[in-house]
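Example record for the data management plan.
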Amino acid sequence: MGKKLLVIIVTYNGMKWIDRCLGSLRESSLPVDVMVIDNCSVDGSPEYIKAHYPEVMVHCAAQNLGFGRANNVGLQKASEEGYDYVYLLNQDAWVGPDTFESLTSAMQRHPQYGILSPMQLTTTRDKLDPRFANWCPDKAVQEWRSSSSGRIHDVKFVMAAHWMVSRECLKKVGGFSPAFTHYGEDDNYIHRAQYHGFSIGVLSDAFAVHDREMRPMSKPASMRMKCVASVVKISNPLNFLPFRMLFQPMELLAISVRYCSLSVFRYIFTLIRDYSRLRTLRRQSLRDGAFLESAE
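Corresponding structural encoding:
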């Protein structure tokens, strides 16, 4: 009996990429079900998908749920309906014809991997996505470049633009934590998967594309990411919580001085006020199937 795979795509004004993204799924050698969760797009993309891709399930959220909560809608469906694998796919990304077949085969041979990613490429397909490359082992890069027989390589992190998640991992880890609204969700999910004993990897002979223009990050955006990083560290169940609650304000203070950032300094007080909620969410995140019972 074949393995059931649900592809989950969160969209927001993604008309630019719809045909490349959904078109690639039609060409997959492994048949898949597809669910789009739309975060209140105003560019007509949900209507376009319904008209041109009738095989796709479209869920229009009543409000913009953000990345994590929107994905949880699809993850809840996958959990309830017994899918063997889930693939999280960005709206600005697409896969090759053999991507899913390669990943599912690798995960069947190596069930210790809860999350597996293909090599994430730029649109020219001759370069790795720069942020993906930051975490990708040199050996995996060498195998990809030489088109040699691919292997799974362990990584500490891989972006959720392309994630294959096993049913076993989904049942244990559950959905994305509401501690994160934008950025940090994938870091936290990986930490929780590792807490439950799952490995994270990339498969060097599977590829997929992530179409994004790499622009220098502005200072305000960079400072926001440093604030999010504090929430990631506090929410990580592999970290000692009392130490993190003591250390993160001091780290943020040092960052605010180093970068002359008033926004980071102000965030120290926001973070401390949020400690009670973050402790509760961290505790809840360790339950089997966390955050899927009420995805919206």
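Summary line stored alongside the record: DSSP finds twelve helices and nine strands in the chain.
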